């Protein structure tokens, strides 16, 4: 007998945690943190006994897929964690940074001391297109999910009561065109498909249009003597922004305009990326083969210490500042916003999705008064938004991803808000003529 149960990211987008029971073997896929309005759920019990888990497979290093691993280990999980090497490298940085933030909260989920025992369990590495046989002849295979560096989707194959069965978990799937990451790989066969539905309802702006808009808004601002503040996510989005700014630098468009990468986490993640040249797109690979660092250029300064960071604002000359957090919920970006939002000549350029009720979302709505770190700011700067850099596939791409798979018995929709799930379900049934089901938290599905 085989069963699937979701303990996170069913009917919601964060807290990914999915359990597959095959006979007496328990395989957990991801153990992510609930974020935003769902954060209180992190303090609820897992819904299963962590001691009973035989394998943890990690699809990628975003916190909503790895953030509760230290908690899982603290509560008794002690088996090997299966992931790509790149995911492990980035997970170390993300989990340590996360613990640092959690320690400053009144109610602590876990501390820095809980991170090392969790990291010690990584080490069962599997790369894309590789397979591994677990106990009871259960076979797992990874393919590139094209979402962030090192991200994978997973196939689990097993024999159940003399019937061969296969289950695919999409992880988070990337757009077909990405700025730096190598393209997504597709599956040809699977019986049960669990797929993320983040953008089940929407279609993204074309990447080329977004790139042009990004560069144009920056050029216009610096030509008018303004400063550009880019609130950016440390993982992947910052490296994409650096890559595009490098192109501008190579074309002589950033002459005498200093660029600051003002985030220790983003600086560390960028360094970690350079250890995995084979995982980049062909363009980026070719640069690396020629000895060129795709994320470095003449005008760029990494500001690691607090002092270096404060020095950025020692003059009012035009500059570009990339700082976290991506949704302006804490981090160094806040004091840059306090300084630069007040003047009309400056630009705050959002390059990622802004969740409801975050400071980033409030600023991105446009002019008005906002409060940052107890300062009341009248927003006069221009506010730009580039929407097409998303690391997630849109509706069309999700459908294409499903459509390449033969022998599907049912498509199970996870990792999405209800309107996205409902629309994708309707499209899967109507356009692809497949059975589709929206998974609920705790619902046991017989496989
Ligand atoms: Zn992700």
Give a description of the structure.
The chain is an alpha/beta fold and 447 residues long. It folds into 2 domains: 2-202 and 390-446, 4-Layer Sandwich (Metallo-beta-lactamase, Chain A); 207-385, Rossmann fold. The protein is built from 13 helices and 22 strands. Helix 13 (418-432) links the parallel strand 20 and strand 21 (436-438). The chain is globular. The chain binds zinc ion. Zinc ion (ZN) binds next to loops.
Shape designation: globular
Helix-and-strand structural type: alpha/beta
Low-confidence stretches: none
Instruction: Please summarize the sheet with the most strands.
Output: 7 strands, mixed
Please name the fourth-level CATH homologous superfamily of the largest domain.
Ribonuclease Z/Hydroxyacylglutathione hydrolase-like
Topology:
Blueprint: E1 2-6, E2 18-22, E3 25-29, E4 55-57, H1 63-66, H2 69-74, E5 81-83, H3 85-103, H4 115-119, E6 122-125, E7 131-133, E8 139-144, E9 152-160, E10 163-169, E11 192-196, H5 207-223, E12 228-231, H6 237-250, E13 259-262, H7 264-273, H8 282-289, E14 300-302, H9 306-311, E15 320-323, H10 333-340, E16 347-350, H11 359-364, E17 368-372, E18 375-379, E19 382-385, H12 395-403, E20 410-414, H13 418-432, E21 436-438, E22 444-446
Parallel strand pairs: 3-4, 4-5, 5-6, 10-11, 11-20, 12-15, 12-16, 13-14, 13-15, 16-19, 20-21
Antiparallel strand pairs: 1-2, 1-22, 2-3, 7-8, 8-9, 9-10, 17-18
Helix pairs in contact: 3-7, 12-13
Residues 60, 62, 65, 147, 172 line the site of zinc ion.
């Amino acid at each position: 007998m085989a069963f699937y149960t979701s303990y996170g990211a069913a009917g919601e987008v964060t807290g990914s945690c999915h359990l597959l029971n095959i006979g007496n073997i328990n395989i957990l896929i991801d153990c992510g943190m609930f974020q935003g309005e769902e954060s209180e759920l992190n303090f609820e019990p897992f819904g299963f006994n962590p001691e009973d888990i035989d394998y943890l497979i990690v699809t990628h290093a975003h916190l909503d897929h790895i953030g509760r691993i230290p908690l899982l280990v603290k509560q008794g999980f002690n088996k090997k964690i299966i992931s790509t090497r790149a995911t492990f490298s980035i997970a170390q940085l993300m989990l340590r940074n996360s613990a640092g933030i959690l320690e400053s909260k009144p109610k602590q989920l876990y501390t820095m001391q809980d991170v090392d025992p969790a990291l010690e369990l990584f080490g069962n590495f599997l790369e894309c297109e590789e397979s591994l046989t677990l106990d009871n002849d259960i076979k797992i295979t990874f393919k590139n999910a094209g979402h962030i560096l090192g991200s994978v989707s997973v196939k689990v194959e097993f024999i159940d009561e003399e019937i061969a069965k296969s289950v695919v978990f999409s992880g988070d799937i990337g757009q077909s065109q990405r700025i730096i990451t190598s393209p997504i790989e597709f599956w040809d066969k699977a019986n049960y498909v669990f797929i993320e539905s983040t953008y089940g309802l929407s279609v993204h702006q074309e990447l080329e249009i977004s790139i042009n808009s990004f560069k144009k808004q920056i050029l216009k601002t610096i030509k008018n003597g303004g400063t550009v503040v880019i609130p950016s996510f440390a993982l992947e989005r910052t490296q994409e922004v650096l890559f595009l700014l490098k192109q501008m630098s190579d074309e002589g468009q950033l002459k005498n305009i200093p660029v600051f990468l003002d985030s220790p986490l983003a600086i560390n993640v960028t360094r970690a990326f350079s250890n995995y040249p084979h995982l980049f797109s062909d363009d980026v690979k070719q640069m690396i083969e020629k000895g060129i660092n795709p994320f470095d250029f003449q005008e760029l300064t990494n500001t690691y210490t607090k002092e270096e960071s404060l020095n950025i604002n020692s003059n009012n000359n035009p500059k570009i500042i990339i700082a976290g957090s991506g949704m302006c919920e804490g981090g160094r970006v806040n004091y840059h916003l306090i300084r630069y939002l007040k003047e009309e000549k400056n630009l705050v350029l959002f390059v990622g999705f802004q969740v409801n009720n975050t400071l980033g979302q409030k600023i991105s709505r446009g002019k008005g008064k906002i409060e940052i770190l107890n300062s009341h700011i009248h927003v006069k700067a221009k506010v730009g938004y580039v929407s097409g850099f998303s690391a997630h596939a849109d509706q069309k791409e999700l459908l294409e991803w499903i459509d390449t798979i033969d022998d599907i018995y049912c498509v199970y929709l996870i990792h999405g808000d209800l309107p996205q799930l409902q629309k994708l379900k309707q499209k899967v049934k109507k356009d692809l003529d497949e059975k589709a089901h929206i998974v609920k938290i705790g619902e046991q599905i017989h496989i």
